[in-house]
Structures are given as structure tokens and as C-alpha cells.
Design brief:
The chain is of the alpha+beta class. It has 2 helices and 6 strands. The strands form 2 sheets. Strands 4-1-5-6 form a 4-stranded antiparallel sheet, with helices on one face. A two-stranded antiparallel sheet has the order 2-3. The protein is globular.
Length: 89
């Protein structure tokens, strides 16, 4: 399975929670109303804004959809080589 890096920029996050609505298994709002990145295989840490995960193509598609749903483009997704997939540059 490919690895991707998912990162939320807490300075850009406005707490819209659209990422949580789309992919609640990967995102959760913390006490400061910022989206934290969850790894379903690990315990939740509300202060983690970046994770590297092995994902299936279907899981990757869900993460991409969640990133695209963010009104401030605060979610960044990188491939295994470190290339930024989202937001598109």
C-alpha cells in the first residue's frame, strides 16, 4: 500500500469541520476547534496535525475528498516522494 503524508495547517484551519464530515475516521476537531489528523491504527492525539499513513486507493480518495472540502485549503496531502498533491499548486 502506498504511504501518504496528511497535514493540517492549524493557522489556516477555521474549524469548519467539513473534513470531519467527509472523513471522520481521519480527522477530529480538537479543543481549539482545529482539525487534527487521526490514524485509525493509532490512539487519537488532538495536537497531531500531521501523519504519514499507508492507505488503500479508496482511503486515499476519501482523504483527497476531505482535503478538497476544506474552505481554506488547510489540508495538505503529499505522496511517498514528497510531492504535494493537494492543494494543487
Amino acid at each position: 500500500m502506498p504511504k501518504i503524508r496528511v497535514k493540517v495547517d492549524p493557522d489556516l484551519c477555521i474549524g469548519a469541520a467539513s473534513c470531519v464530515t467527509v472523513a471522520e475516521q481521519y480527522f477530529e476537531m480538537n479543543s481549539e476547534n482545529k482539525a487534527a489528523v487521526k490514524d485509525p491504527a493509532l490512539p487519537m492525539d488532538p495536537d497531531v496535525f500531521e501523519r504519514i499513513m499507508e492507505v488503500t486507493e479508496e482511503q486515499k480518495d476519501l482523504l483527497v475528498l476531505a482535503a478538497k472540502s476544506c474552505p481554506t485549503l488547510a489540508i495538505f496531502i503529499y505522496d511517498e516522494s514528497g510531492n504535494q498533491l493537494l492543494p494543487e499548486q
